[in-house]
Amino acid sequence: MDHPPASPYLPAERILLGPGPSPVPQRVLRALAAPTLGHLDPQYLAIMDHTCAMLREVFRTKNPLTFPVSGTGMAGMECVAVNLLEPGDEAIVCVNGVFGTRMKDVMERCGATVHAVEAAWGDVIALEQIRAALDAHPHTKLVGVVHAETSTGAHQPLEGWAELVHARGALLAVDAVTSLGGHELRVDDWGIDAVYSGTQKCLSCPPGLSPVSFGPRALAAMDARKSKVRSWYLDVSMLRKYYTGGGGGGRVYHHTAPINMTYALHEALTIVLEEGLDARIERHAQMHRRLRAGLEAMGLRYIPQRSLHSLNCIGLPAGADDAGVRRRLLEEYGIEIGAGLGPMAGKAWRIGLMGHGSTVRNVDLVLTALRTILG
Ligand SMILES: *Cc1c(COP(=O)(O)O)cnc(C)c1O
Fold first, then answer.
1. 184-198: per-residue pLDDT in tens?
2. What's the CA-to-centroid distance between 42 and ligand 1, angstroms?
3. Does ligand 1 come within 6 angstroms of the Cβ of 178?
4. Residues 6+ apart with CB under 8 A from 190
5. Does domain 26-272 sit in CATH 3.90.950.10?
6. Is this structure's pTM higher than 0.85?
């Protein structure tokens, strides 16, 4: 054991190199322990406003409606879906992994008819496929796509998507849970209308908040709804009165914001901007290349054609004991990596190099550990 625990309930210091959560810096953990304020205390509102301002920088957007939804990344997915879709609407969703599959399910639960555009797991969706789907379904209101498909490690290009989607009068909604803060993501330049992320991936904050941003087209679509949003908790028409003070009447209580999680996100975003977004994205690229060179030298192969930098999905070497190797990594080295999900269960490993975890030390450690265990 790397760190014999004093009590079985005292969490060990793991090195989190899986699909999330990622390692959390001490500064962020300390921020969590600051005194809890009231959710309408002017001091707290100033912290919240500054958190939203930093989120705009990290999303590279000017959207006033940018805030952290209470809940993990899935809450962000539900928030985007339930506010932009209502019964009778049509949507197109890209399905090439677990999270695209979930997005389709979530949007169907909003009462929408969802047309799937599919690619093999590990592949990305071609813009031509979206063009054909829009031709076949001209009443489509929204196109949903996962930018960083964490289940397969595939990196979906999005350049040029908005021009096509907007020309057909539809909205572009993007899952950026595993790309925000680790990969190039330009919400305004790329014309993204709605985007959601999570705190525990490349932002290196504990799980619990889901940053979202809605652009002017998405706002117009929400204003034009015929029916009430089918989730009370995630109804942006009410949430925006609290988070932005917009809609008249000033700040209005909706639900108690997760106060201390906001401190943590504020500190995590401060760290991102201190490093600089471009430098951080470049660090993720360099660490990915370092890991990839080491894994390929061991004869391991990447599954996706276009790999993410934040998540490395490799095929299991022939004859390797999937669970046994992962257990030894955890017990002997304190390293967590991810197993394959869905159809890739037992066939793949997923090594995350996210945020604070994307370092030379961790890359070289996991390579050494794998070399030792695999012999
Ligand atoms: C992790 C993840 C989610 C879900 O986030 P949770 O925080 O687990 O709710 C959604 N989409 C993608 C691409 C993810 O990687």
1. 999 999 999 999 999
2. 32
3. yes
4. 158, 159, 161, 162
5. no
6. yes
